[in-house]
Amino acid sequence: MDKLASLRAFVKVVELGSFSEAGRQLRLSRSAISKYVSELEQSLGVQLLNRTTRHASPNENGQTYFERALSILADLDAADQAAAHLQSTPRGLLRVNAPMSFGTLQLGPAIADFMEMNPELRIHLVLSDEQVDPVQGGFDVTLRIADLESSSLIARKITPIERVICASPSYLEEHGIPAHPNALRNHTALTYGFLLTGNQWKLTGKDGDHWIQPSWLLCANNAEVLRDAAVKGRGVALLPTFIAGEALRLGKLRTVLDDYKAPPLTLYAIYPPTRHLAVKVRLFIDFLVARFSAGPEGHRDTAVRHAR
């Protein structure tokens, strides 16, 4: 027996004085309403209603039971509304994992604004350039800048991350400006070696794709380290524009091979599959999509200083 359905049917019959009217209100047949009430009476071992062909009214037992049933259903409705309110209002703890550079340069200010919009939410942010397991790490949202491999996790695209090849003016003056991707083989590279392509650089231009295995002097898993080495004249780097942007604007770095493009990476928000996505997770990801819809700060072409 569906006790809750039987309670609702019984209460509606008492309120309306009719099985037929109760059925219309609950969008059930008269026979279904009658069955629910009969099953309720059988489970209790008492009769609750006096019935005629056109009318139903509670007897003494039925009236007492009706009053208690009203209270029970009211409490249940209040609990449902409270749960719905919790689902519509972000609160509690949101655990986020993100890459170190993106976290310090871009995500920090964004999270501060998100916190202002959602004062009942606490955020635990862990920055790491290691590929942590979101599930084992207990993170609600994991941000990654990469070409994702297949996974059982759900990934939502936030924004593309553009990259440029750049070097310091002093390095280019000493070693020359490469005019073709093949010329990079004669230059010292500063490379991020933790992508699916390893240390290879793929550059695409009007003459097709070029895969370059540069001779690297520094390989690091943090692009800010590579940027700083490039600014010091240590070599040529392939950097995300949101990391190289300020140095490009200040003229500390200049782009080269502007007719060739590296495939953009993508910023993804990753989270475990779930039937009902927590409102705090959904709102946070929606916020990131809106925040970075035009790309991270520092990515824009106006920030780029080309080599001359």
Summarize the structure in short.
It contains ten helices and 14 strands. With 308 residues, it is of the alpha/beta class. It folds into three domains: 3-87, Winged helix-like DNA-binding domain superfamily/Winged helix DNA-binding domain (Arc Repressor Mutant, subunit A); 92-153 and 267-291, Periplasmic binding protein-like II (D-Maltodextrin-Binding Protein, domain 2, 3-Layer(aba) Sandwich); 163-263, D-Maltodextrin-Binding Protein, domain 2 (3-Layer(aba) Sandwich), CATH 3.40.190.290.
Index terms:
308 residues; alpha/beta; Arc Repressor Mutant, subunit A; D-Maltodextrin-Binding Protein, domain 2; 3 domains; five-stranded mixed beta sheet; 41% helix; rod-shaped; disordered C terminus; LysR_subst-bd; LysR-type_TF_proteobact-type; DNA-binding; transcription regulation; DNA-binding transcription factor activity
